[in-house]
Write a structure and sequence with these properties.
The chain has 308 residues and is mainly alpha-helical. Helices cover 77% and strands 1% of the residues. The chain has one domain: ABC transporter involved in vitamin B12 uptake, BtuC (Orthogonal Bundle). It is built from 13 helices and 2 strands, in the order ααααααββααααααα. A two-stranded antiparallel ribbon has the order 1-2. It is globular, with a radius of gyration of 19 Å. The model has no long low-confidence stretch (mean pLDDT 90).
């Protein structure tokens, strides 16, 4: 039974893939599949950061706003003459600082992550709009488009980037002290304290990593659009959380995996792409995402009750 539950996200992905291939003749084209990879990469990279946050028993509702801020500041730097690598670094650095602030507020003020990140969602989005005066950044170098639209060996560059981030996160979770401590804190934070784990430090580090990956996702989004949009990322927090939960992560903490998150994000991406190909309204897509989240959490709750 436990094995079936672990395989359920993967089986769901296969069924969805086959169903869309049958339903639309345009689904299996190289152009469409490449588009799915590029579109999903942003959510995937955000979701990798959300994975370690949720494993540690936290949640970050501000990632959409962090994505917008990172993308805007990075493109503003390039508009003012900084090099493309420096602009990307600034975008990633902005995300890192935002995540660091979230982690510091949560650990120092001892306020629930839900409340803190709900507040910083408004703060980060408001600051982004203030800095940009509500206007997008258009004057970015042509070479910047390679980050989101370029290819290496006929494979989208963002896929190589996603694989690298996934391997790094998997290594962190499975082979480092931070990863082991994240699982321990998420399973029982009080026991982690008694075991001598520096809970505050590692919790802050987890949010900083999540923010850094979100900053990178913001730069990829800006590269795909070739503009820095202060409103970019609205609603992305829901998709990132959904990807982790669909992939087997538990909102109670202590559970989650990189492979599961990737599968969950691709399920979300295929649902969105399939809806577009079949002419389904964006409003209906939002309903579907909400239903999928509730179903995934319900399955997790039922599994935990049976275990007890």
């Amino acid at each position: 039974m436990k094995q079936l539950q672990r395989l359920l996200p993967f089986l769901s992905l296969i069924i969805l893939f086959v169903a869309l291939a049958v339903a639309s003749p345009h689904f299996l084209t190289n152009t469409n599949l490449s588009s799915v990879v590029r579109q999903t990469a942003v959510i995937n990279i955000m979701a990798l950061g959300m994975t370690i946050i949720i494993i540690s028993g936290g949640i970050d509702l501000s990632v959409g706003a962090i994505l917008g801020m990172g993308g805007l500041l990075g493109t503003m730097a390039m508009e003012r003459g900084y090099s493309i690598p420096m602009g990307i670094a600034i975008g990633i650095g902005a995300g890192l600082l935002c995540g660091l602030l979230n982690g510091t507020l949560i650990t120092r003020l001892k306020i629930a992550p839900f409340i803190v990140t709900l507040g910083t969602l408004g703060i980060f989005r408001g600051l982004t709009l203030i800095v940009s005066k509500g206007l997008p950044v258009h004057k970015v170098p042509e070479g910047f488009s390679f980050l989101g639209e370029g290819t290496v060996l006929k494979i989208p560059f963002v896929l190589w980037l996603l694989v690298a981030c996934a391997f790094a996160m998997h290594f962190t979770l499975e082979h480092t002290r931070l990863g082991r401590y994240a699982f321990a804190i998420g399973s029982n934070s009080a026991a982690a304290v008694y075991a001598g784990i520096p809970v505050a430090f590692h919790t802050t580090a987890v949010y900083a990593i999540g923010g850094m990956l979100t900053g990178l996702a913001g730069m990829i989004e800006a590269s795909r659009l070739m503009t820095g949009q202060p409103t970019a990322g609205q609603g992305y927090e829901l998709q990132a959380i959904a990807a982790v939960v669909i992939g087997g992560g538990s909102l109670h903490g202590g559970e989650g995996s990189v492979v599961g998150t990737l599968i969950g994000a691709f399920i979300m991406g295929l649902l969105s792409n399939g809806s577009d190909l079949l002419g389904v309204s964006n409003y209906v897509q939002q309903v579907v995402i909400g239903v999928v989240i509730i179903l995934a959490v319900t399955v997790d709750e039922l599994r935990k009750r049976r275990a007890v």
